[in-house]
Structures are given as C-alpha cells and as structure tokens.
Amino acid sequence: MSSCFDCGSSSKIHHHHVVPKRRGGTKTVPLCEPCHMKVHGKTMNMTSMSHEKIRELHKEGKVYARVPYGFKVGKNKVLLENKKERKVLETIWALRDKSVSYSKIEKILNGLGYKRKDGKKWTRESIFSVVSSQSKPSITYLRKKIWK
Questions:
Q1: C-alpha to C-alpha distance for 122 and 52, rounded to whole angstroms
Q2: pLDDT tens across 13-24, in order?
Q3: Number of compact structural domains in the chain
Q4: Which domain holds residue 23?
Q5: Long-range contact list for 69-75, CB < 8 A, 24+ apart?
Q6: Is residue 6 part of a domain?
Q7: Same domain, residue pair 89 and 36
C-alpha cells in the first residue's frame, strides 16, 4: 500500500501527476487527499462540495467543467454541438490521420483563420491538448448520444 510522499499518511491516497497528463506526463507520486488538495490550492471543504455538485450535475446530464472543444453549453447546462469548432476538430483529426505534425497543423489552422475557444491563434501545444482530451471513440459516442 502506498503512503503519501509528503506527510507519510496511508489514508485516501491519490496519484498526482508531476507533469500534467495533458502535457505528456506519465510519472505520479502518491499523495493523501489533503496534500493533493494543497498542491492544487484547494481545501477539503471545497473539494467535498465540488465532488457532490459534480455527481449531482452528472446525474442530470449537465456540464460542470471546462467545455470540450467542439461543444457549447445550451440551456440547463447541456452540451450542444458548436458547428464552427466541430469543423476545426474534424480538420485536426483528418490531418492527424495523415500523420501531419502538430507544427504543420498549427500553420494550416492559423492560415485558414481558425481560432481556439479563447479566440487566440493555435499553437502546437493547444492542438495536442485538444487531441489528447478527445479521443475519436468519445467523439463518435457523443455524436450518437447528443446529435441523434
């Protein structure tokens, strides 16, 4: 059984990514829940309340997180297709299927005038983040679930 890297506790162990997964991190360190929350600048009360609210919204099929690229939030916090972003996402996947590098995709998207969700130009890192956070099977599943 693991113990917390920081305080030595063996209660409620989480596996914290030293380098975030979205940036390619694979190594984790064991941290107890209080120490893990400290790393992320959160308190226990905030975490417990957040988890409770997330479970409640999840049961209702509502959004409680950063909205994935290709979607927007509709009435009652339900995910809906964002057609402009979906077009960009399909372009990214088509280029990745042809083994086009993230750097080349960056140049293509910016050349076509496509913008990120925040309105900024695309970077290799932002493209990697979108690709990493949305696998093709999840997009297919969401299409069936939301658009049909």
A1: 35
A2: 888 888 877 788
A3: 2
A4: 13-59
A5: 69/116, 69/117, 69/130, 69/133, 69/134, 70/134, 70/139, 71/142
A6: no
A7: no
